[in-house]
Amino acid sequence: MDEVEDDSQLSDEERQLLTGNIRKTVWKYGIPCALITIINTLYNIVDQIFIGNKIGSLGNAATNVIFPLTTIALAFGLLVGSGCAANYSIFLGKGDGKRASRCAGNSIILLFAEGIIFAIVSRLLLSRIVVWFGSTENTYDYAMEYGSIICYGIPCYMISIGLSNMLRADGRPKTATLSTVIGCVINCVLDPLFIFVFEIGMTGAALATVIGQAASFIFSAVMIFRLKSVKLEKYSFIPDIKLIGKIVLGGLTEFALNMCISILFVVNNNLLVKYGARSEYGSDIPLATYGIMMKLSHIVSALATGMGQGAQPLIGYCYGHKEYGRVKKAIRFAVIQGLAIGVSVWLICMIFAKQLLLLFGSGDNTYVKFGTKLIRTYLSLVFLNAIQLTTSNILMSVGKAYKGAILTITRNLILCTFSGLILCPIIGIEGVLLEGPIADGGSAILSVVLLIFETRSLNKKIAAEKQNAVSEVK
Prior knowledge:
Elements lengths: L11 H8 L2 H33 L2 H37 L3 H28 L1 H7 L7 H30 L3 H25 L3 H23 L17 H10 L1 H25 L7 H27 L1 H9 L3 H28 L1 H7 L5 H14 L3 H16 L3 H27 L2 H4 L1 H39 L1
Helix pairs in contact: 2-3, 2-7, 2-8, 2-11, 3-4, 3-6, 3-9, 3-10, 3-11, 3-12, 4-6, 5-6, 6-7, 6-8, 7-8, 10-11, 10-17, 11-13, 11-15, 11-16, 12-13, 12-16, 13-16, 13-19, 14-15, 16-17, 16-19, 17-19
């Protein structure tokens, strides 16, 4: 067992994690982290808003086809980034700075390797990918135009995502946020310039995104070599298979979440095209509006995940320091916070469904009718999704990422995707609309069960610690 540092040797950051106000500490890390996840979501949302207002619903449908590809890239970036952050916090909590440094160095190597490989493979297979991901005859050329450029920015995107998670775990949430803000601001400035001034349409939207991602990568790559808690040395970059396994396992929840979202997108794109063609709405309207609705649901995911990750350094450090009572309090706060976030966004989506839809471009009455119905039905229980996302982050923070991964897979793959596959042959395109409430309700119940078991486990650890303390006194 590693020795725990004497409290007198703790840094101010570590002392705050152990004794500071839980709400202020979670918000210190959570607000920047939530901003990062929101900004990452905005990359695609901003593109879609400008494309929708310039090109129309077909352009929106094309970005929806490419979106699963960027989500898969995000999944691999978070697999390493979140896994590193979780283990990095635990190692620091145990006072093992050398292990923490090795964790960061190995993660950097992994990020560069997977980013380059992913970009090459996705570009070579792009013509097939857009078909697999649900492109129609009307959207194929738009999807290829947009995706062929997006592929080149994928390494920068994956690496910057991973590095920002490491910076947050190092107690530098503002720096992590700034790396993402820089890219988003550049994207938001260049999007209207390329699309409306230079009039290069889908190519312009993609170029703006890639340039923004490159800027984020450059900034985060510079800052990662200025870590506060540890120093990166040559030994940090020597591959350690056992440690790499811990990193991958630690990031499994975030990886599973985004991979399941990608699978869900691909399956539903194809269901919407197939069963939309048999309805009054056709194939293209459901494909375009589904992408918009999912961007709105991702705002809930981004906020809940971001604020949940804000609790991760506190929970992980205190867990490693055996302060289990404080871990329980942090978990309770994180769950209440997640539910409040979910309810707030849910109210906005229910009340302003039509206005939110039209923000992404206008359409005829059929477009508006299906779009508003889709938003209000699919997101009718979305506030419960925040509980599942928060619970997944909690489980990852205490070294039980596999449980979080199971929860995520149950929600997005079993309850959501499979319900659509079962219902659509029976009730047509309406089956896709009912996926959301089925998945959100079912995963919330499972989340509560897992939280109860985790609380009982913490209670046992607290009792054991008290027993040990009594034995030492005797």
